[in-house]
Amino acid sequence: MIYRLYEKILLRNLSTLPEHICFMISEKDMLDAPDNLYRTVEWCRELGIRSVTFHISTTDPARLEHCLPQIRRVSSIAHLRLHYREGTEVGGEGMDVAVAIGKSGREEIAACIRQMAKEGVEPDSVDEELLESYLTFRYEPDLVIKTGGDHLTDFLIWQSVYSELFFLDVNWALLRKVDFLRALRDFQSRVRRFGR
């Protein structure tokens, strides 16, 4: 009852929302609460967030194989791009949702450079815009939310350089809507400088 009241108060005071959010969760987080991913997408949809990404940090994506049905369920309410192993699955309509399992930002940038080299791109013509055109994940999250006490990964290392970071003091399995709304309230209170 108290949480619902708190939710209403937080919702009433939200006026500035991020367009794109990235959640960084661990393999253990996903294994402990695979259904939270779907619930979080529902919250984002309700609020009108344009797109959301979930990065699931793991050294062995195969360990998350049995979570794939819960992840794919997102395509029933949103446009899902599931990046798993070497492939990408696409399905559904609506809000853009990307789920990246075990992906690395450093590997993504190295792959961009390799591809430019294969295509014979002249080194002097390489600039930020050209590099960004080769990225797999071509968006810059306004807000990166990390649950629990683990450190950030290098996922979206290029794209998130000007993102606002929010470290939730609760683990993914215990995430409630009020915790998510607290992160949005914090985002709203910040003055974004984009590196200036």
- Apparent shape: globular
Strand order of the largest sheet: 4-3-5-2-1-6-7
Task: List the uncertain runs.
Answer: none
Number of helices: 7
Which structural class fits the helix and strand makeup?
alpha/beta
* Percentage of residues in helical conformation: 25-40%
- Gap from first CA to last CA: 43 Å
How can the largest sheet be summarized? 7 strands, mixed
CATH class identity:
Alpha Beta
Task: Please tell me how large the radius of gyration is.
Answer: 17 Å
Strand content: 15-25%
How many DSSP E strands? 7
CATH topology value:
Undecaprenyl pyrophosphate synthetase
Number of domains: 1
Order of helices and strands: HEHHEHEEEHHEEH
Task: Give the overall pLDDT as a whole number.
Answer: 84
The CATH architecture term is 3-Layer(aba) Sandwich
CATH superfamily membership: Decaprenyl diphosphate synthase-like
